[in-house]
Amino acid sequence: MQVEQLKNVVVEQLEDLKAKDISVLDVRELSSVTDYMVVASGTSNRHVKSVAHNLVSEMKDQGVMPLGVEGDDVSEWVLVDLGDVVVHIMLAQTRDFYQLEKLWDPNWKEARSN
After folding, report:
1. Which of 36, 63, 91, 109 is the most exposed place for a label (fewest CB within 10 A)?
2. What are the residue ranges of helices labelled H in 1-114?
3. Left if phi > 0, otherwise alpha if psi is -120 to 50, otherwise beta: which for 63?
4. What tens digit of pLDDT does each residue of 94-114 get?
5. Domain-embedded: residue 96
6. Is residue 108 one of the residues assigned to a domain?
7. What is the pTM of this model?
8. CATH number assigned to the domain comprising residue 65
9. How many separate domains does the chain show?
10. Which residue range forms the structural domain that includes residue 54?
11. pLDDT tens digits, residue range 23-64?
Protein backbone atom coordinates (compact mmCIF):
# COMPACT_ATOMS: atom_id res chain seq x y z
CA MET A 1 0.00 0.00 0.00
CA GLN A 2 1.35 3.42 -0.97
CA VAL A 3 2.02 5.99 1.77
CA GLU A 4 -0.76 8.39 0.76
CA GLN A 5 -3.24 5.54 0.49
CA LEU A 6 -2.20 4.20 3.90
CA LYS A 7 -2.62 7.66 5.45
CA ASN A 8 -6.07 8.02 3.91
CA VAL A 9 -7.18 4.57 5.05
CA VAL A 10 -6.01 5.34 8.60
CA VAL A 11 -7.94 8.61 8.68
CA GLU A 12 -11.07 6.93 7.28
CA GLN A 13 -10.86 4.19 9.90
CA LEU A 14 -10.39 6.71 12.71
CA GLU A 15 -13.43 8.65 11.47
CA ASP A 16 -15.50 5.43 11.26
CA LEU A 17 -14.44 4.54 14.82
CA LYS A 18 -15.61 7.96 16.07
CA ALA A 19 -12.15 9.25 17.02
CA LYS A 20 -12.19 12.99 17.71
CA ASP A 21 -10.06 15.89 16.46
CA ILE A 22 -8.07 13.92 13.90
CA SER A 23 -4.87 15.70 12.87
CA VAL A 24 -2.48 14.62 10.11
CA LEU A 25 1.09 15.88 10.37
CA ASP A 26 3.46 15.64 7.43
CA VAL A 27 6.84 15.02 9.10
CA ARG A 28 8.79 13.90 6.03
CA GLU A 29 11.14 16.88 6.28
CA LEU A 30 11.48 16.62 10.06
CA SER A 31 12.03 12.90 10.60
CA SER A 32 13.52 9.93 8.83
CA VAL A 33 11.50 7.56 11.01
CA THR A 34 8.08 8.09 9.43
CA ASP A 35 6.32 10.18 6.80
CA TYR A 36 3.10 11.03 8.62
CA MET A 37 1.89 11.21 12.19
CA VAL A 38 -1.82 11.00 12.77
CA VAL A 39 -3.08 12.22 16.14
CA ALA A 40 -6.61 11.57 17.34
CA SER A 41 -8.50 11.69 20.61
CA GLY A 42 -10.70 9.12 22.25
CA THR A 43 -13.48 9.89 24.71
CA SER A 44 -12.39 7.39 27.39
CA ASN A 45 -9.70 4.80 28.09
CA ARG A 46 -12.02 2.14 26.72
CA HIS A 47 -12.65 4.17 23.55
CA VAL A 48 -8.90 4.79 23.02
CA LYS A 49 -8.18 1.08 23.38
CA SER A 50 -11.09 0.10 21.13
CA VAL A 51 -10.08 2.55 18.39
CA ALA A 52 -6.49 1.26 18.47
CA HIS A 53 -7.55 -2.41 18.50
CA ASN A 54 -9.97 -1.95 15.61
CA LEU A 55 -7.45 0.09 13.61
CA VAL A 56 -4.85 -2.67 13.99
CA SER A 57 -7.41 -5.30 13.01
CA GLU A 58 -8.47 -3.38 9.89
CA MET A 59 -4.87 -2.75 8.86
CA LYS A 60 -4.10 -6.46 9.16
CA ASP A 61 -7.19 -7.25 7.07
CA GLN A 62 -5.78 -4.93 4.40
CA GLY A 63 -2.37 -6.62 4.50
CA VAL A 64 -0.55 -3.98 6.55
CA MET A 65 1.16 -5.49 9.57
CA PRO A 66 1.79 -2.99 12.37
CA LEU A 67 5.42 -2.77 13.44
CA GLY A 68 4.29 -2.25 17.01
CA VAL A 69 1.56 -1.15 19.37
CA GLU A 70 2.44 0.59 22.63
CA GLY A 71 0.35 1.80 25.54
CA ASP A 72 -2.77 -0.31 25.16
CA ASP A 73 -2.42 -1.61 28.72
CA VAL A 74 -3.32 1.77 30.26
CA SER A 75 -4.96 3.28 27.16
CA GLU A 76 -4.34 6.94 27.91
CA TRP A 77 -2.09 7.08 24.85
CA VAL A 78 -1.83 4.23 22.37
CA LEU A 79 0.74 4.40 19.59
CA VAL A 80 0.22 2.27 16.49
CA ASP A 81 3.33 2.12 14.31
CA LEU A 82 2.47 1.34 10.70
CA GLY A 83 5.91 2.29 9.40
CA ASP A 84 5.25 5.21 7.07
CA VAL A 85 2.34 6.33 9.25
CA VAL A 86 2.49 6.47 13.04
CA VAL A 87 -0.86 6.85 14.78
CA HIS A 88 -1.28 8.37 18.25
CA ILE A 89 -4.67 7.82 19.88
CA MET A 90 -4.92 9.73 23.12
CA LEU A 91 -7.28 10.90 25.82
CA ALA A 92 -8.00 14.61 25.38
CA GLN A 93 -6.20 15.59 28.59
CA THR A 94 -3.13 13.53 27.63
CA ARG A 95 -3.13 15.11 24.20
CA ASP A 96 -3.38 18.60 25.72
CA PHE A 97 -0.47 17.84 28.05
CA TYR A 98 1.96 16.48 25.44
CA GLN A 99 0.91 18.75 22.54
CA LEU A 100 2.40 16.60 19.77
CA GLU A 101 1.03 18.90 17.09
CA LYS A 102 3.00 21.79 18.59
CA LEU A 103 6.14 19.67 18.70
CA TRP A 104 5.95 18.38 15.13
CA ASP A 105 4.22 21.20 13.23
CA PRO A 106 6.27 24.42 13.01
CA ASN A 107 3.12 26.35 11.97
CA TRP A 108 1.02 25.06 14.87
CA LYS A 109 0.94 28.30 16.87
CA GLU A 110 0.23 30.41 13.82
CA ALA A 111 -2.50 28.05 12.63
CA ARG A 112 -4.19 28.02 16.07
CA SER A 113 -4.15 31.81 16.47
CA ASN A 114 -5.79 32.50 13.08
Report:
1. 63
2. 3-16, 45-61, 92-98, 100-104, 108-113
3. left
4. 999 999 888 887 665 444 433
5. yes
6. no
7. 0.89
8. 3.30.460.10
9. 1
10. 3-102
11. 999 998 888 899 999 999 999 999 999 999 999 999 999 999
